[in-house]
UniProtKB/TrEMBL annotation:
<protein>
    <submittedName>
        <fullName>Molecular chaperone</fullName>
    </submittedName>
</protein>
<dbReference type="InterPro" id="IPR008962">
    <property type="entry name" value="PapD-like_sf"/>
</dbReference>
<dbReference type="InterPro" id="IPR016147">
    <property type="entry name" value="Pili_assmbl_chaperone_N"/>
</dbReference>
<keyword id="KW-0732">Signal</keyword>
<dbReference type="Pfam" id="PF00345">
    <property type="entry name" value="PapD_N"/>
</dbReference>
<dbReference type="InterPro" id="IPR050643">
    <property type="entry name" value="Periplasmic_pilus_chap"/>
</dbReference>
<feature type="domain" description="Pili assembly chaperone N-terminal">
    <location>
        <begin position="22"/>
        <end position="141"/>
    </location>
</feature>
<dbReference type="GO" id="GO:0030288">
    <property type="term" value="C:outer membrane-bounded periplasmic space"/>
</dbReference>
<dbReference type="InterPro" id="IPR013783">
    <property type="entry name" value="Ig-like_fold"/>
</dbReference>
<dbReference type="GO" id="GO:0071555">
    <property type="term" value="P:cell wall organization"/>
</dbReference>
<feature type="signal peptide">
    <location>
        <begin position="1"/>
        <end position="20"/>
    </location>
</feature>
Length: 252
């Protein structure tokens, strides 16, 4: 089965993709300047016919990194509705409409959703749930420019729950960042790491800032004179370090 990036895949009721028998290639689309169309191949590796509906929305993040989706009329999808017999493929074509924005100085992001529709015959895909697959569509900038930084660690409230440790990562470049993970280290007085907390990576879109937070535990704070944050983007790493006392407070 062709691989899908886990963070880009959502399944209604958490249905296993392998059970559903659906695979997609490639797992996302990049449109370079001057490129107007692209294709996806949707394969049905299962033993039941599936019916799918395609849609596309504009994807943005605000200054705090919150995702937002808005209806888009920048693309045409063909076909929008299709059925795939067991062992067969369907090519989905994605085309930019004349006058649509993008391919200027800043990358634009979209999300393509493939939603399984119920069939008359029994259970969908043989597992009793309907799939919803989401993939990114990127309109690449003319000249990509990477410029990003990691802020000093801070404590944030979690709506009455346990406080969380966060370090906003700001993307001042003109294209997305894809972080593999963010690591928080509790440093002792000599600067040696005594404990680690890790946050899963995600995208930070151009112009956005996103805090990759983890629960701030008393055990972590008890070992920390300082807190170091390490963020990794492809082959590039950024760090920041700050005193633990203002962050941990009563968690010590």
């Amino acid at each position: 089965m062709k691989a899908l990036a886990p963070a880009l895949l959502t399944l209604a009721l958490l249905a296993p993709l392998a059970q559903a028998g659906i695979s997609i290639s490639p797992p996302g689309i990049e449109l370079k300047p001057g490129q107007q169309t692209a294709e996806l191949r949707v394969s049905n590796d299962g033993d039941h016919e599936v019916s799918m509906q395609a849609s596309l929305v504009r994807w943005t993040q605000d200054a705090e990194g919150r995702d937002a989706e808005t209806e888009s009329r920048d693309f045409v999808l063909y076909p929008k509705l299709f059925q795939i017999a067991p062992g067969k493929d369907q090519v989905l074509r994605v085309g930019r409409l004349p006058g649509a924005p993008g391919n200027g100085d800043t990358e634009l992001a979209y999300r393509l959703t493939l939603r399984e529709l119920p069939l008359d015959q029994g259970l969908a895909n043989g597992v009793g749930v309907l799939l919803r697959l989401r993939l990114p569509v990127w309109l690449l900038p003319v000249q990509p420019r990477r410029d990003w930084s990691v802020a000093a660690p801070l404590a944030i409230s979690a709506g009455g729950g346990a406080p969380r440790l966060s370090a906003p990562i700001s993307n001042r470049g003109n294209s997305r960042l894809r972080l593999s993970e963010v690591v928080y280290q509790a440093l002792d007085a000599s600067g040696q790491s005594q404990a680690e907390l890790k946050a899963s990576g995600w995208y930070v879109l151009a112009g956005a800032s996103l805090g990759f937070s983890v629960e701030l535990t008393p055990e972590f704070c008890a070992k920390a004179s300082q807190i170091r944050v390490i963020a990794q983007v492809q082959d590039e790493q950024r760090q920041s370090t700050g005193p633990a006392a203002p962050v941990c407070g009563a968690r010590r």
